[in-house]
User: Which sequence fits this backbone?
């Protein structure tokens, strides 16, 4: 019996999210079908994060186990060759892990990335991969607001209805970084949010992003973040940012050490 | 009676090409429907180029005429607001032109751009917007081959079956530029072909691109281009490059002057 950990990248645009659903194209469903053919037995995948429709992943992780012949190191190439027709999902790595290791329960945290393009004519080619905002954003104000989200808080105000009710709505954001960049020959301004935490409530990153964008637009002050968190009320936070700007970047299975990453 | 020239940009990924077809989402069909609503009368568009399914445009041009009330300069905003749901097509400019001006018959030439990403793991997010080639390309060889395509030739060997038989297969390529660039924080290598000519046969740019890529891979010598052209045989040229790397960049209505453009 082998237990295998996969690292998976996908463009979420044409998927109805990660989780298998009948009659819908989902990442889990697509991978399970191909893995079952490659392994010669029915495979069930457990992913770390159930990303929503339209959300992307650079480093989703998932485990599965079975009693199959194919060497683990050959799984990425075998699966990717069978997936290649559409080309919007790929297995990046596969490694054998101890029998009791589970991509979801062993996760200690995650980093999400959110991309915002602003202050320019919309780019039709970027429409599913960033949030396009047709006005200037005050980056310093967004940074000040971001710092107030960091730490351990009750994030109930940043949780959308519709997910499973969690045992607790207290989470820790280890770091929420706001980076500005200017990209391409036209030097188009982007803001990238990098959010690392021990766990995230339903739509939490997208609601935090929506709140920070409202701060960047001058619609609310950075200090308002404290009142949002204290309210424990979804209606006090900003709008939910669209899914296409969100990327699951990394899953941590060790304690998270916040230092000077690249 | 007004005659209007539009400049149009689109991401061709989710369109069955430019040309209106029943029961298919096409750029012409989508724009005619919205223009008809904006103008309050049935609008028929004439586009300069009938781009294929999956091919993109930064500067497609099209004319239409009618006896409508909306000021021409308001057309882009009005149409774009009604198109915004999907967001993969936009009117960039609209201007009134003389009554006998026609986007197709008045065109003196076009520039197409073809993007190739090479020598790296495929990027799932770029799959519909460039041709991804998993090996090194010899750029100097491609430049040498490109020079042999320039000028006035019978391009029959670079014409796919399936289009209308043209009166002549002689065309002039004013310039075929091969540019290398290194993009993003990972400095991924790209090659961009910029092809300017007085007119193009069916799939001509994609067949020229396929031939130059085979030269870049070392599968044929740059000098082979001369033999390809002289053969007048489609089977002597390279494979047809995929549609997603191709962009209609610019249409010329004046004589083309090849100088040092940006």
Assistant:
């Amino acid at each position: 019996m082998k237990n295998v950990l996969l690292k998976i990248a996908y463009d979420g645009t044409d998927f109805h999210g990660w989780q298998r659903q009948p009659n819908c194209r989902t990442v889990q469903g697509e991978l399970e079908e191909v893995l079952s053919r490659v392994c010669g037995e029915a495979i069930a995948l457990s992913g770390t994060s159930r990303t929503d429709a339209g959300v992307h992943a650079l480093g989703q992780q998932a485990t599965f186990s079975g009693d199959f012949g194919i060497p683990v190191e050959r799984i990425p190439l075998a699966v990717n060759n069978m997936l290649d027709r559409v080309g919007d999902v790929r297995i990046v790595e596969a490694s054998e892990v101890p029998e009791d290791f589970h991509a979801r329960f062993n996760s200690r945290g995650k980093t999400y990335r959110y991309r915002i393009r602003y202050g320019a004519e919309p780019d039709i080619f970027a429409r599913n991969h960033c949030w396009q905002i047709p006005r200037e954003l005050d980056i310093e104000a967004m940074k000040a607001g971001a710092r107030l989200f960091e730490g351990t808080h009750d994030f109930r105000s940043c949780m959308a209805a519709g997910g499973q009710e969690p045992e607790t709505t207290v989470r820790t954001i280890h770091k929420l970084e706001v980076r500005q960049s200017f990209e391409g020959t036209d030097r188009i301004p982007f803001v990238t949010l990098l959010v690392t935490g021990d766990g995230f409530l339903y739509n939490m990153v997208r609601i935090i992003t929506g709140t920070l964008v409202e701060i960047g637009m001058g619609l609310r002050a950075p200090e308002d973040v404290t009142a949002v968190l204290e309210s424990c009320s979804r209606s006090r936070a900003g709008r939910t940012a669209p899914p296409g700007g969100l990327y699951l970047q990394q899953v941590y299975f060790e304690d998270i050490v916040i230092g000077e990453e690249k």
